[in-house]
Write a structure and sequence with these properties.
The radius of gyration is 21 Å and the shape is globular. The chain has a 4-stranded parallel β-sheet, sandwiched between helices. It has a 4-stranded parallel β-sheet with strand order 8-7-9-10, sandwiched between helices. Strands 1-2 form a two-stranded antiparallel ribbon. It folds into 2 domains: 3-64 and 103-193 and 371-393, Rossmann fold (3-Layer(aba) Sandwich); 200-334, Rossmann fold (3-Layer(aba) Sandwich). Strand 5, helix 8 (166-183) and strand 6 (189-192) form a beta-alpha-beta unit. With 401 residues, the protein is α/β, with parallel strands linked by helices. The protein has 14 helices and 10 strands. Residues 1-34, 36-40 and 386-401 have low confidence and may be disordered.
Length: 401
């Protein structure tokens, strides 16, 4: 990563010197993507009787390959311990090679971090932003190691997922715990920011993206029109032990109501499990076939289950779903994800502010109110697989007693 990209993320209270930037450029990519900045300002929060001091933001994401030679090592890392056949990995690898062997997710995270840096600076929140991934460079352990070297003690963690499930919430807490255990003494504590599926800023940004897609249909085309919301499918057993599906339905309802669409449909994509394991459905391709059979000619798909146009959006929707729609003679428009929409970036800033300033309201709309800051011990339980460390392995990952 370019040294000037590191500089872009540093807060105004300190910019790296030219020598520090040069040193950063010489680091391996896995660590150079972490933000190298130290800030003297810290933010205090009284939580019960415990005095919490936050001195950094850690953006936590999935990760993805950035070249053809990284595709298979990345997929092997993602599926480690799951006994996925090698042939299946080769098939999925072709999705990445279709786009030159590069996932867009890392660059999208760089853009989001840069936008967040600008947003925080504009509101005098002088916290450095670091970035670590679950599955590829920069890894979480690399980010935490750099944070320890920079003197960071207690960070707020923003996970790039709006919803609750094992894979989109609790597993990231396990990843943090494993990285902390790997680093050992002096590793920073990380408090995960709550899920934000019903935050008004996130909903507003989603609505703007849906309106942009809706504008591509004429008034006549809307007479035979369906609004379909998609999200990543997960095993039914995982869905039954979390609020994932309920939260997705609430987001879809809030967006449809605000945009003025009377009906919406929820479909799923990107299934990766064995055929004999039940996963959430209907699959978006099957749903398109059913809509076509019912005489529907125009479809607007909004991937509200994702926050960026990463590879699963580009391949599963823009390639496979769009190709099927063309075969069926249907017009399909895919709405953009929130990405770096200013309202979404402001949402992240508000989620940070509500944790560092207890006088700030916790914003949420709809039926369910704001989610908990600290996940209950029984929240989103993990599938039982050998070798998985418990999330409680490192006490600095907050959970209720």
């Amino acid at each position: 990563m370019r040294a000037n990209s590191i500089l872009e993320y540093a807060p105004r209270c300190l910019r790296l010197s030219s020598s520090s930037a040069a040193d950063a450029a010489e680091r391996p990519r896995s660590t150079a993507c972490c933000v190298l900045s130290r800030c003297t300002k810290r933010y205090h929060l009284l939580e019960g009787i415990r005095h919490v001091v936050y001195d950094a933001i850690l953006v936590i994401s999935f990760g993805g390959p950035e070249g053809p030679d990284e595709v298979m090592p990345f997929l092997e890392n993602v599926t480690r311990g799951r006994n996925i056949p090698h042939e299946r990995l080769l098939a999925v690898a072709e999705h990445y090679h279709h786009f030159g062997g590069k996932s867009p997710i890392n660059e999208q995270n760089r853009q989001l971090i840069a936008a967040l840096r600008t947003e925080l600076d504009a509101h005098s929140i002088d916290l450095p932003i670091y970035w670590g991934n679950r599955n590829w460079h920069p890894f979480l352990a690399d980010a935490l190691r750099q944070m320890r070297a920079d003197g960071i003690q207690h960070a707020l963690g923003f996970v790039t997922s709006a919803y609750s499930s094992y894979s989109s919430c609790r597993q990231y807490r396990e990843n943090i715990a494993a990285a902390q255990a790997e680093i050992g003494k002096g590793t920073p504590a990380v408090d995960k920011i709550r899920v934000f599926y019903n935050h008004p800023g996130f909903i507003d940004a989603c609505c703007d993206r849906v309106r942009e897609g809706l504008a591509e249909f004429s008034l006549g085309e809307r007479n035979s029109f369906r609004f379909v919301v998609t999200a990543h499918s997960i095993p039914c057993s995982m869905a039954e032990s979390s609020d994932y599906q309920k939260q997705l339905c609430e987001t879809a309802r809030l967006v449809a109501d605000q945009v003025g669409l009377e009906n919406w449909y929820l479909a799923f994509q990107s299934r990766s499990g064995p055929p004999n394991q039940p996963w959430l459905g209907p699959d978006v391709l099957d749903h398109l076939r059913n809509l076509h059979a019912a005489g529907v000619e125009n479809v607007l798909i909004a991937p509200l289950g994702f926050i960026s146009d990463h590879l699963e959006v580009l391949y599963d929707l823009d390639t496979e779903a769009q190709g099927l729609a063309h075969e069926l003679g249907m017009k399909l428009v895919r709405a953009a994800t929130v990405g770096t929409h200013p309202k979404f970036v402001a949402t992240i800033r508000q989620l940070i502010l509500e944790r560092i300033d207890p006088s700030q309201p916790k914003l949420a709309i709809g039926r369910y109110g704001p989610n908990h800051d600290v996940c209950p011990a029984e929240c989103c339980p993990a599938p039982q697989r050998a070798g998985r460390p418990p999330v409680s392995a490192v006490p600095s990952v907050l959970q209720r007693p």
